Amino acid sequence: MIVGPGLHSGASCRVRLYREPGPVRFKRGRHELPAILKNVVATPRCTVLGDGSLRLAMVEHLLAALYITGWWQDLLIEVSGAELPVLDGSAAPWLEPLAALGPPPPLPPPLAPLEPFSLLVGSTRLTLSPGPTRLAVEIDFAHPAIGRQRWEGAPSDYPALASARTFGFLKELATLQAQGLATAASPAYVIVYDQEGPLTELRYADEPVRHKALDALGDFYLLGRPLAGTLTVARGSHSAHIDFMRELLAFSVLTGAHA
Asked: How confident is the model over 82-125, as pLDDT tens digits?
């Protein structure tokens, strides 16, 4: 069992993982909520799933761990609260309980793009093209300790993203907390940057872009199958990821996908 506070609510949540036939879904009480795109209801600095009976925030780190380890079905995730634990701010703490379940079921056929497809919103651009399966993520922050960073890799490189932690800026904290977000923000859970640099030691020099790549994996997991082709995300966000996937399905750009 995994236990810990949510980053935004601060409320404690217990999580248990079970092998159980069927789609990957969350369960609280009698209510079950599949981890699929149509159940995304909000993206307030995290990804929130809901269906009227159950609402669950900050699912992206666990979903990224599922993407990395190849769990696409036959998994029940029992939760006690409305926000998953932030743990150390990365996906790494989820890997051990997933490994304890044994090998995952066989991978389903991937979703592949039929043609290049792009979405541009302001300074954010997402592109999916036929070709080798790769993820490329770029960020550009006006902060001397971050600036412009890029990470690119194939699925065999995705495990290198698991321990990259979420990050934020000290100057934004009061505003976020006034909105009911990041109420439990702490250097124990988040890389906090002041005007000069991070208040805690980084695990990687490019940890911010690695975490943004991890977030992308978690969000794109909601397509329900691995994604083939080359996905490039420049200055992405949870809301941009969700909008892009909805556009992919609406325009029938993916083989075997259903809107």
From this structure: 999 999 999 999 999 999 999 999 999 999 999 999 999 888 99
Residue 241 is among the residues annotated as catalytic for this protein: no
pTM of the model: 0.94
In 9-50 the beta strands, taken as DSSP E runs, fall at 12-19, 25-28, 31-34, 40-42, 48-50
As a whole number of angstroms, the distance between CA 237 and CA 133 comes to 21
- Which of 61, 211, 238, 241 is catalytic? The answer is 238
- Output Rg (C-alpha) for the chain, integer angstroms: 17
Domains of the chain (ranges; CATH) run 2-99 (3.30.230.20), 117-250 (3.30.1700.10)
3-state secondary structure of 116: coil
d(CA 122, CA 137): 17
